[in-house]
Design brief:
The structure is a homodimer of 124-residue chains. With 124 residues, chain A is mainly alpha-helical. Chain A is 60% helix and 10% strand. In chain A, a hairpin with a 6-residue loop joins strand 1 and strand 2. The first copy, chain A, binds a DNA duplex (20 and 20 nucleotides) through helix 3 and helix 4.
Chain lengths: 124, 124
DNA sequence: CAGAATCCGTTAGGATACTG
DNA sequence: CAGTATCCTAACGGATTCTG
């Protein structure tokens, strides 16, 4: 049976599993902020206020929440250096977060394309 | 300057644009139901109640809303055959919806992997 | 069958002020 | 600096009933 990425076939169970996997991914990455924060993190912003400035429009409350969730999901590591003053807290993206780069890239490509489509529709 | 998919570089403006593109994509595809509905559509479910049965747990109100939004975004076409009785309404995924297959596939892969990670963490 | 109408609870997230 | 605490609103979405 030939199977390239254009003609993947799945049994019903496999299909259901994959669907729930898609949902899992959306659950972890969805919402207004998570991917934006991840991008900020991998772009080199590690301090709380730094991230807040980088991710425009986010409030500290929301940022704090999202960072906790991202940490729970193993995408970022919170480190505290209590020797320094003021206490230095850093949010470091894990290697695991890197695995999202390709996905983010694809989403971006699709989004760019989609914007073109939509705006050209308006012209019709 | 070498540029493979591991070392893409962007100017600040390009980066901001791409980021907003990612947001656009999430906006169009995000939420609890949209990708699930798209999967149902490309899987061959075209009638309203058919789709509702396929996408487990969705209410008619929500399904109706989502379908309208998907139509606005060009991902599905609503067709009515008023000659027939009862009136036959069908929701046909556009070719454009096919462009999501790869994305959905990647999300699925990532999700599968993520579930493994998370559940193995619990064992630690 | 294909939805619309209604009602209602939950939650995401915004604004702002405050604290160690 | 790195958050927490409060308050508040809008949107999401569930349940149910109704209709052409």
């Amino acid at each position: 049976m030939k199977e390239n990425n254009k003609t993947q076939t799945f049994t019903k169970v496999e299909c259901a599993d994959r669907l729930s996997a898609v949902e899992d991914a959306i659950y972890v990455l969805g919402g207004k902020w998570k991917l934006r924060i991840i991008v900020a993190l991998v772009s080199g912003y590690h301090r709380f206020n730094e991230i807040q400035r980088s991710v425009k429009g986010i409030s500290p409350r929301v940022l704090s929440n999202e960072l906790k969730i991202l940490e729970l999901n193993g995408l970022v590591k919170r480190t505290v250096d209590s020797e320094s003053f003021p206490v230095l807290v850093e949010y470091i993206p894990t290697d695991y977060a890197e695995t999202l780069k390709e996905l983010v890239s694809m989403l971006g490509n699709w989004g760019v394309n989609h914007k073109k489509r939509i705006s050209s529709e308006i012209d019709l």
